[in-house]
Amino acid sequence: MLAYPLQRQRHATAARERLLSRLEEFLYRLLIVPLVAFLPAPLAYGIACLRGDWCCRLNASLRARIIDNLAAVLGDQLSAAERRQVARDYFRRRSCEAVDVMRLAGKGRALAPLIEIRGLEHIEAALAAGKGAMLCSAHTGSFNVCFSLIGARGFPITVVGDWRSHFAAHMSPLQRFLWRLIHERPLARHRHRPNIEPEMDRFGAAMRMVDLLRANEVIALGIETPVAPEDRARAISVAFLGQRMLLLPGCTDVARLADSPLLLLLVRRLPDWRHQVLEISPPVAQDEDSAATFRRCIAVLETSVRQQLAAWDWWADIEGLLETA
Asked: How far apart are alpha carbons 89 and 284 in whole angstroms?
């Protein structure tokens, strides 16, 4: 008899937490981050970590969902204490990434000394050969910031990905404006062209990517993205973190069609929370079977995700990736 009222109460509590979390995030990015981001890096990122710890306590439902998803995917590979640690570090990492975005201001000189870039010669070689380059990442760490930082280094990079302000149904017009101002514009200003947004141009996105690669430019994207129900028939099953996931291998199809090298971007944040290492791989060997090439890319990116579990974005919403969803 009490199950339904209790369930309704839990849903109401979770809804309040989401509302408070969104409001707090806007206030943090709009008011706090501009004040602290350009302080000495140890202080700026130390404040970000404190804010992340506070958010972890504030948003109990999201924290619980992350812990539950870690248990469901990894089983007993992590202890209960380790799952709690990953959840806390998830919030810390997201908080630090807001500082990363702010430090992209100007030419990104406030951020560049904190990120060691390895492997830029692979992009340079691809452009010297006139083939363009397909740069693929997992949705892990400050990958989006790193795409922009590569652009700030002078490389003609265009990112494939939908801006949150275009698809988040919960945003009001004012929230969309503020999000574009404080998050999307700082990222976009270092990119060669506006984002290619698949949801905005479902049928033309792939050909635009091919055209830019043939124009000897760089295309960058995160490749383990939830598949829309209407696209599941075109998706392939891949092994990732011990689960079967449905993903679209479009990046390998496009690279093969444009005869462009396929590079992987791996980024990890160091234990001091302010320094990062961005590594660009040599070209991935491409098979006639683009699905096999895609699975090879996913295997490399999985290793990176396992090394820093808290850096992976999808712990909060992994259901859309699973084959059985």
From this structure: 31
* Closest C-alpha among 251, 191, 207, 186 to residue 33: 186
Please give the single-letter amino acid code of residue 40: P
Rg of the chain over Cα atoms, rounded to whole angstroms, equals: 20
Q: What CA–CA distance (Å, rounded) separates 313 from 226?
A: 12
Write the CA distances from 290 to 136, 159, 285, integer angstroms.
14, 21, 10
Residue 122's nearest CA partner among 267, 262, 287, 302 is 262
Look over the chain and give the mean of its residue pLDDT values, rounded to a whole number: 92
115 with 99: CB under 8 angstroms?
Answer: no
Between vectors from CA 293 to CA 153 and to CA 136, what angle results, nearest 5°? Answer: 20
Contact in structure between 87 and 248 (CB atoms under 8 Å):
no
Q: At what angle do helices 250-258 and 290-307 cross, to 10 degrees?
A: 130
Q: Distances in Å between the alpha carbon of 86 and those of 66, 74, 262?
A: 9, 12, 31
**DSSP of 72-109, one letter per residue?**
HHHGGGS-HHHHHHHHHHHHHHHHHHHHHHHTTSTTST
- φ, ψ of residue 264 in degrees (nearest 5): -115, 140
What is the reported pLDDT for 21? 78
| 3 pLDDT more than 60 | no
Contacts of 322 (CB under 8 A, 6+ apart): 243, 244, 245, 246
Distance CA 57, CA 92 (A): 12
- Evaluate if residue 15 carries a pLDDT over 80: no
